[in-house]
# Entry
Amino acid sequence: MARDPAFVLRYLAEVEELAEDVLASRQQIVDLDVKRNRNREALRALHKDPEPDEKAMVCFGSMFIELPKAKTREMLRQDQEELDEEINNLRKELRVKVNRLYEAQGKPELKGFNLNPMSAEEMKLINRILEG
# Structure
C-alpha cells in the first residue's frame, strides 16, 4: 500500500518538530544547570571568606559592581531558588513533550518516566515502618 507523499512529509515534519522541541528543552535545562552550579560555587566562596563585612565584586553582564556581601548572598540565593523552580518546570514540560514525541512515532509511553521523588517526611515515615 503506497502512502501519500504529502502525508508522509507532514508526518516527518511533525516528528522532527517535536524532536527539536525536546532537544531544545534538554539544552535549556543543561544551560540553567550550569548557571545554577556557578551560583552555588559563588555562594560557597562567599561563605568561606573570612571577612564577611566587606564588599564583593559582582559581574552584571559586562560590568562589575561592588556590593555588600550580605546583599550578594541574598541575590544569589534568590537566583538559585528561581533557577531551581525554572529547571523543575522545564523537566515537567519535558516529560509531556517526550510523551507527545513517542505518541507521534507510534511508540508506547515510557514507563516510570512520570515518577516523583519522595519528600523528606515520606522518607521518615518509610524508615519508621521499616525499622518496626
In short: The first helix runs from residue 5 to 48. The mean pLDDT is 90.
